[in-house]
UniProtKB/TrEMBL annotation:
<dbReference type="InterPro" id="IPR001240">
    <property type="entry name" value="PRAI_dom"/>
</dbReference>
<keyword id="KW-0413">Isomerase</keyword>
<dbReference type="InterPro" id="IPR011060">
    <property type="entry name" value="RibuloseP-bd_barrel"/>
</dbReference>
<keyword id="KW-0057">Aromatic amino acid biosynthesis</keyword>
<dbReference type="Pfam" id="PF00697">
    <property type="entry name" value="PRAI"/>
</dbReference>
<dbReference type="InterPro" id="IPR013785">
    <property type="entry name" value="Aldolase_TIM"/>
</dbReference>
<protein>
    <recommendedName>
        <fullName>N-(5'-phosphoribosyl)anthranilate isomerase</fullName>
        <ecNumber>5.3.1.24</ecNumber>
    </recommendedName>
</protein>
<comment type="similarity">
    <text>Belongs to the TrpF family.</text>
</comment>
<dbReference type="GO" id="GO:0000162">
    <property type="term" value="P:L-tryptophan biosynthetic process"/>
</dbReference>
<dbReference type="GO" id="GO:0004640">
    <property type="term" value="F:phosphoribosylanthranilate isomerase activity"/>
</dbReference>
<comment type="pathway">
    <text>Amino-acid biosynthesis; L-tryptophan biosynthesis; L-tryptophan from chorismate: step 3/5.</text>
</comment>
<keyword id="KW-0028">Amino-acid biosynthesis</keyword>
<feature type="domain" description="N-(5'phosphoribosyl) anthranilate isomerase (PRAI)">
    <location>
        <begin position="7"/>
        <end position="209"/>
    </location>
</feature>
<keyword id="KW-0822">Tryptophan biosynthesis</keyword>
<dbReference type="InterPro" id="IPR044643">
    <property type="entry name" value="TrpF_fam"/>
</dbReference>
Length: 215
């Protein structure tokens, strides 16, 4: 577990909620650039959000199976991280990392013991690993669905691999998740919203307070 624990609030769309996350003590914010997401922000808005956040908090842009031109366009805005939340292979993650020139967080969906065995092949090609719930069949997007997974599956993971945990975390569950899984960091999106895509100040503050109290 990182000391201190890394807390990422993902799916920020407004400058107001950016300030809320910073003031509440988050370490990272995530911005979605994926049109099917209720948290999608345009390239223009990404530029504004990243500029406003620079020097105040780490920024991460979430992309799903992006092509090289999308990666280059986003990287030019100067985020600290790009999060790859699609079916990118280790080879593709390596190629994107070379194009982007920023740190890469690779998300791996966990739904079975078999999924846990795939994590090791991404350790050398990504700068950080984020473990999320596997989306249900037929879902229109690979994340941000508030789905949790069986944390017990992670007992089979090589303990030397640092990872962040996401997937349906909420202010009510984050402390138990941290105590059970001992992650490097935690990431939340829908669990701090009053409706899909609408972040809530009190929920963000409670999530961060409860996460810090569990360490
Ligand atoms: O938020 C989305 O709509 C989204 C769309 C496509 C890929 C990832 C997405 N969200 C990310 O999923 C995890 C977990 O979210 P949740 O806490 O379960 O809602 C997080 O990194 C989101 O930013």
């Amino acid at each position: 577990m990182a000391d201190p624990l890394i807390i990422k609030i993902c799916g920020i769309k407004t400058l107001e909620m950016l300030d809320v996350a910073i003031d509440a003590g988050a370490d990272m914010v995530g911005f979605m650039h994926f049109v099917r997401s209720p948290r999608h922000v345009t390239i223009e808005r990404l530029g504004t959000l990243i500029s406003e956040a620079r020097g105040r908090i780490e920024t991460c842009v979430v992309l799903v199976n992006p092509d090289n031109s999308c990666v280059a366009e986003v990287a030019a805005l100067g985020p600290d991280w790009i999060q790859l939340h699609g079916p990118e292979t280790p080879h593709r993650v390596e190629a994107i990392r070379a194009v982007a020139g920023v740190e890469i967080m690779k998300v791996l969906p966990i739904g079975s013991a078999d999924d846990v065995t795939h994590v090791a092949s991404f350790v050398d090609v990504a700068d950080r690993i984020l473990l999320d719930a596997k989306p249900p069949k037929g879902a229109d997007r690979p994340g941000g669905l508030g789905e949790t997974f069986d944390w017990e599956l992670l007992k089979a993971l090589d303990p030397s691999i640092p990872f962040m945990l996401s997937g349906g975390l909420t202010p009510q569950t984050v402390a138990e998740a941290i105590k059970t899984v001992r992650p490097y960091g935690v990431d939340v999106s829908s669990g701090v919203e009053s409706a899909p895509g609408v972040k809530d100040k009190q929920l963000i503050e409670a999530f961060i307070r409860n996460a810090r109290s569990a360490v």
